Amino acid sequence: MRDADFFRRWMAATTAAVEREADRLTELDSPIGDADHGSNLLRGFTAVLPALEAQGPAAPGEVLQLAGRTLISTVGGASGPLYGTLLRRTGKELGEAAEVSDAELREALHAGVAAVAQLGGAAPGDKTMLDALVPGVAALSTSYRAAADAAQDGALATVPLQARKGRASYLGERSIGHQDPGATSSALLLRALADVAEPGEGAR
Asked: Which CATH class is domain 2-196?
């Protein structure tokens, strides 16, 4: 069973990953976006940990809902609403239980990803964060590590795609050949989850 501390550690691990990869995320965003994905996410996630410390949510769902609200209020562009929706809807699905099972987290994440798809009007293959989230969350039925690997593969698979949603879609065929920054950061989120849930097993 996973308690609120587990989810706080997930958010802390995600923050550390974003801090480490912020420059790379912005570099990926430069040719097909506004060159601010890394800096925007960094601003958002570094605000999440102080918010969690200040308010001390006692339930897993409350941790994710607060994290989501913080991202929405601090992250510019589309990333804030999309990531905020992912975490808030996942947290809402978990409810007020003090502990949740891996199966309950998996189902909640499915609902969170569906909410992101509805908000953005996107689907897998559109060269968005869903290209990492959908296969990643689907692979949670195998293991957290499998989910992280599937999300990473999904992000890499965006390179030959033409963007059909978001800022990159304005470029048409010029978006081909670039890895989607949103899918890349989504893979970081699931990698951080795996690192907290299955420590010591290492990345592929």
From this structure: mainly alpha
